[in-house]
């Protein structure tokens, strides 16, 4: 069974006939007050991630030294 559109002019798909009605598209770039890149991007790493990485490196080094001492005995 096929379905036919009773009123072809009432198609809800925007832009089908070569245009999009106003209000269906986002505003132009100049109309967006907060658009664009930030003026002050963060530089470098934060203190928290550096501390976590340092602790992990220290644990690996202590583990390797402990393993070397255990194997050497």
Helix content: 25-40%
Report the principal-axis shape: elongated
Q: Could you give the count of β-strands? A: 0
Please outline the major beta sheet: none
Percent strand equals under 5%
Distance between the termini: 84 Å
Description:
- It is a single chain.
- The chain is mainly α and 73 residues long.
- The chain has one helix and no strands.
- It has one helix at 47-72.
- It is elongated, with a radius of gyration of 31 Å.
List keywords for this structure.
73 residues, single chain, mainly alpha
Secondary structure layout plus pairing:
Elements: H1 47-72
Give a nutshell description of this structure:
The longest helix is centred in the C-terminal third of the chain and has 26 residues. It contains one helix and no strands. It is mainly alpha-helical and 73 residues long.
């Amino acid at each position: 069974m096929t379905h036919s559109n009773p009123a072809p002019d009432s198609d809800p798909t925007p832009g089908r006939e070569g245009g999009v009605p106003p209000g269906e598209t986002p505003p132009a770039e100049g109309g967006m007050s907060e658009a664009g890149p930030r003026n002050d991007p963060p530089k470098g790493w934060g203190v928290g991630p550096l501390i976590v990485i340092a602790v992990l490196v220290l644990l690996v080094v202590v583990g390797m030294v402990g393993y070397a001492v255990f194997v050497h005995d």
